[in-house]
Amino acid sequence: MGSAWAVVPAAGTGTRMGGTVNKQLIELSGRPVVEHSLRALLAVPVDGIVLVAPPGEESNFARALKDIISLNRIIIVHGGADRRESVGRGFMALPAGVGLVVVHDGARPLVRPVRVREAMKEARRWGASTLAVPVKDTVKLAGPDKLVQETLPRELLWQVQTPQVFTRELLLEAHRAAARDGYSGTDDASLVERLGHSVKLVPGDYTNIKITTPDDLLLAEKIMGLNPA
Ligand code: CTP
Ligand code: MG
Questions:
Q1: Which of 25, 41, 60, 105 has most ligand 1 atoms within 8 Å of CB, for mutation?
Q2: How many CB atoms neighbour CB 66 within 10 A?
Q3: Closest CA to ligand 1's atom 23
Q4: Angle at which helices 33-42 and 113-126 pack, to 10 degrees?
């Protein structure tokens, strides 16, 4: 099916993190957050990575990640206004011959390579897959007035993570359709679902958190202490 490359969106502004250092470059166990994400993907292994940095910060990222970049096939491009646009720009930079695309948030440094391999296996079978964990809390649907409209059936609810893995053709078709329709979505799987195509859930780990707010950094340090690399 061709080679497997990763696209790593890391072009967000980290608004919820705040602070002056880009959240992707904050140090976690002595290394930038995004470097842990890249290392996990290289350990899978993938054949190469397109890292999507914020516009104007490409050289900053290249400097912070120079060791890992010098030893591996990592291309840096700049992202867009939303996550979909950033993944789309990363996709365009993939070399010819790529058959499988592993989309993984730069902000998920704790993913385990074994889980990425499982997601890749299911994507080869189904065309699209995503890591996910069963929802632990009861989830309710409410209106803007914060009045509950419905309690959703917890046994059917999954919290999705990344990586999300796709065949190259399917991801291309999904992004083209979403761009044409002005649909942003919050993940790539939803773009594929809009096409009416199946997406296979692959049970992951609760520890694969997304670094979003400052307390996530404390949590990530703790989790890393439990599972030293
Ligand atoms: N992302 C991106 N391009 C954007 C927006 C988001 O590449 N225009 C990436 C982020 O860098 C991150 C992932 O998508 O790796 C998930 O997004 P999120 O955790 O929301 O990160 P930010 O958008 O940076 O944070 P915030 O929403 O708090 O601003
Ligand atoms: Mg965001």
A1: 105
A2: 10
A3: 12
A4: 60
Task: Verify whether ligand 1 is closer than 6 Å to residue 185 (CB atom).
Answer: no
Q: What is the CATH number of domain 3-226?
A: 3.90.550.10
Domain extents in the chain: 3-226
- In the chain, the N- to C-terminal Cα span, in Å, equals 31
Tell me the per-residue pLDDT of 136-158, one tens digit each, with 9 for 90 and over. 999 999 999 999 999 999 999 99
Q: Which pLDDT value is given to residue 1? A: 75
Q: What element of type H or E holds 48?
A: strand 48-53
CA of 2 to the centre of ligand 2 (A): 31
Answer yes or no: is the C-beta of 163 below 6 A from any ligand 1 atom.
no
Ligand 1 neighbourhood includes 52 CB (under 6 angstroms): yes
Q: Is 132's C-beta closer than 6 angstroms to any atom of ligand 1?
A: no
pTM of the model: 0.97
Tokens of 25: 């470059």
Q: How high is the mean pLDDT in each 10-residue block of the chain (229 residues)? A: 95 96 96 98 98 98 97 97 98 98 98 98 98 98 98 98 98 98 98 98 98 98 82
